[in-house]
């Protein structure tokens, strides 16, 4: 049976009864004082738990149950190593020496001067004198190691935060460890702090699970399913390890294997490629000179900033709760759908075909500038190197880690509602275009002409964009008509293709000097430029 064997070495052990030192949980009277405390240690600890924030929340009931049902705390051990308990016990009565409190200070001074081994060389005669020494036995017990670790709040915080003037000393914002520490470090720290200071040593507790393989099995050298972080870092880079951790729900066990890491690599590439596009398209943009006031931006640009502000509010709310995996998921979705699947796709025409310094292009770049700055700050906690690398290109300070989050205008509710519906209609149109693409009738969406029959409310939304509507749908032409329900018809474009903007337009070749260009591109290159205000 495994019981009479050491759990680590698997060697036989002998259990014996021994006198121990305890910390009382339910009595206010102690060894060194006969004064009753107003509350027991258990009561103080349970009250402190109620005043502590837990991440995830179920940690609170776990720790509360352990404190509520635990026996008195055994704080002594019989081992040859560890922090000694410097007690001298009367050989007949077993009582502590009356000068025990002074002896504790004396022992501390000896250890401070000569190290932990110095106390083991001290004899009863050295401390008590030759007259008292024969009547007392020097204790050879050591403190339980959880008592050692539980006392770190007293030493560490006073060492690193000497100027923090809490009424009862410094207090940690957060203790972070695995969920097994509810019975370990979190537990002993709570009891010690409540005994000494009457409160918890922390404002919050964050617990995480353990690393397992892709099938959920505990990692073991004997099973050969371990993954070395150093090898992953050398092969894929430290950013991939950071992103894997951030993308994992640490409230449970965290899985890792090559397939999982491959998915993380794909996610990283999506974010990085989006960032590269943003940086490339604002490379000739100087915010101090070229920025367009936010209330003068094109409507789709104002929508994009509103969407970024909405996402930032979500991101910051998650960060407040130390929730990283929803941030990663939403950032991936934002890069893939909001930016890659819509906004950046719509913007390409304006960025590539409008005059370099035109209002249309500068409006787009202003929005991209604000989005990029906001996005780098969202990323920085878990894609630190990538964010810092990008910051060296567009940042206006030494480091992104010296920045606070972007101050974006509050989301415009009416604008968000309008464009949410427009995107739903756009998705329906894309579905119809895809049907023709599968049939080989069109290639890119610019080869398609749309005819949209819509009820009054939708028709008003579509008409509000005027001739810019085709840029939202990324088609060469959009016709609108009233109807009782939304109907979308797609037909292949019959006009000629402009070799510059790739739109199929009837006015291609209208400028004899540039027969391959449409009238729009000719105007953008050699004339006054086209007029746009929505998209």
Describe the structure in brief:
This protein has helices at residues 41-50, 58-69, 100-114, 116-121, 124-132, 145-150, 152-160, 185-197, 229-236, 238-247, 258-281, 287-290, 299-320, 325-353, 359-379, 384-394, 413-438, 456-463, 469-473, 519-526, and strands spanning 22-23, 53-55, 73-74, 76-77, 88-90, 136-138, 142-143, 175-178, 204-208, 211-212, 254-255, 448-454, 477-482, 487-492, 496-497, 504-505. With 535 residues, it is mainly alpha-helical. β8 (175-178), α8 and β9 (204-208) form a beta-alpha-beta unit.
Key features of this structure:
535 residues, mainly alpha, three-stranded parallel beta sheet, three-stranded mixed beta sheet, 20 helices, elongated
SSE layout:
Blueprint: E1 22-23, H1 41-50, E2 53-55, H2 58-69, E3 73-74, E4 76-77, E5 88-90, H3 100-114, H4 116-121, H5 124-132, E6 136-138, E7 142-143, H6 145-150, H7 152-160, E8 175-178, H8 185-197, E9 204-208, E10 211-212, H9 229-236, H10 238-247, E11 254-255, H11 258-281, H12 287-290, H13 299-320, H14 325-353, H15 359-379, H16 384-394, H17 413-438, E12 448-454, H18 456-463, H19 469-473, E13 477-482, E14 487-492, E15 496-497, E16 504-505, H20 519-526
Parallel strand pairs: 2-9, 8-9, 10-11, 12-13
Antiparallel strand pairs: 1-3, 4-7, 5-6, 12-14, 15-16
Helix pairs in contact: 1-2, 1-8, 9-10, 10-11, 10-14, 11-14, 11-15, 13-14, 13-15, 14-15, 15-16
């Amino acid at each position: 049976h495994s019981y009479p064997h050491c759990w680590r070495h698997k060697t036989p052990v002998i259990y014996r009864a021994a006198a121990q030192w305890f910390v009382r949980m339910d009595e206010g009277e102690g060894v060194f004082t006969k004064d009753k405390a107003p509350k027991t240690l258990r009561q103080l600890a349970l009250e402190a738990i109620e005043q502590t924030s837990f991440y995830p929340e179920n940690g609170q009931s776990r720790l509360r149950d352990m404190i509520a049902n635990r026996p008195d705390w055994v704080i002594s051990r019989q081992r040859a190593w560890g922090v000694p308990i410097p007690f001298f016990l009367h050989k007949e009565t077993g009582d502590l020496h009356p000068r025990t409190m002074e002896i504790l200070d004396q022992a501390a001074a000896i250890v401070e001067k000569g190290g932990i081994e110095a106390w083991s060389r001290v004899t009863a005669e050295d401390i008590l004198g030759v007259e008292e020494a024969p009547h007392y036995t020097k204790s050879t017990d050591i403190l339980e190691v959880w008592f050692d670790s539980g006392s770190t709040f007293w030493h560490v915080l006073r060492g690193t935060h000497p100027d923090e003037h809490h009424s009862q000393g410094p207090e940690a914002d957060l203790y972070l460890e695995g969920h097994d520490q509810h019975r370990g470090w979190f537990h002993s720290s709570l009891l010690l702090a409540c005994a000494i200071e009457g409160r918890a040593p922390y404002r919050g507790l964050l617990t995480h699970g353990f690393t397992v393989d892709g099938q959920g099995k505990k990692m073991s050298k004997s099973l050969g399913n371990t993954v070395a972080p150093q090898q992953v870092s050398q092969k894929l880079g430290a950013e991939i390890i950071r992103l894997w951790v951030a993308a994992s729900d640490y409230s449970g066990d965290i899985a890792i294997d090559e397939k999982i890491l491959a998915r993380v690599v794909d996610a990283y590439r999506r974010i990085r490629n989006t960032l590269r596009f943003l940086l490339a398209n604002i490379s000739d943009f100087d915010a101090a000179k070229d920025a367009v006031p936010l209330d003068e931006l094109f409507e789709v640009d104002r929508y994009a900033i509103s969407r970024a502000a909405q996402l930032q509010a979500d991101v910051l709310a998650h960060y407040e709760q130390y929730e990283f995996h929803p941030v990663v998921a939403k950032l991936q979705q934002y890069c893939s759908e909001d930016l890659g699947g819509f906004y950046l796709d719509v913007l390409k025409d304006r960025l590539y075909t409008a005059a370099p310094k035109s209002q249309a292009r500068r409006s787009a770049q202003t929005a991209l500038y604000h989005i990029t700055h906001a996005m780098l700050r969202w990323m920085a906690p878990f894609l630190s190197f990538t964010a810092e690398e990008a910051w060296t290109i567009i940042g206006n300070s030494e480091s992104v880690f010296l920045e606070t989050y972007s101050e974006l205008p509050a989301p415009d509710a009416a604008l968000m509602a309008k464009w949410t519906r427009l995107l739903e209609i756009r998705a329906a149109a894309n579905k119809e275009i895809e049907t023709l693409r599968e049939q080989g009738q069109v290639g890119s969406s610019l080869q398609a002409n749309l005819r949209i029959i819509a009820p009054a409310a939708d028709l008003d939304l579509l008409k509000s964009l005027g001739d810019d509507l085709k840029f939202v749908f990324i088609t060469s032409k959009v016709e609108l008509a009233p109807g009782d329900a939304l109907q979308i018809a797609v037909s292949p474009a019959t006009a000629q293709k402009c070799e510059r903007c790739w739109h199929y337009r009837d006015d291609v070749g209208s400028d004899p000097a540039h027969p391959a260009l449409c009238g729009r591109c000719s105007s953008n290159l050699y004339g006054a430029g086209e007029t746009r205000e929505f998209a």
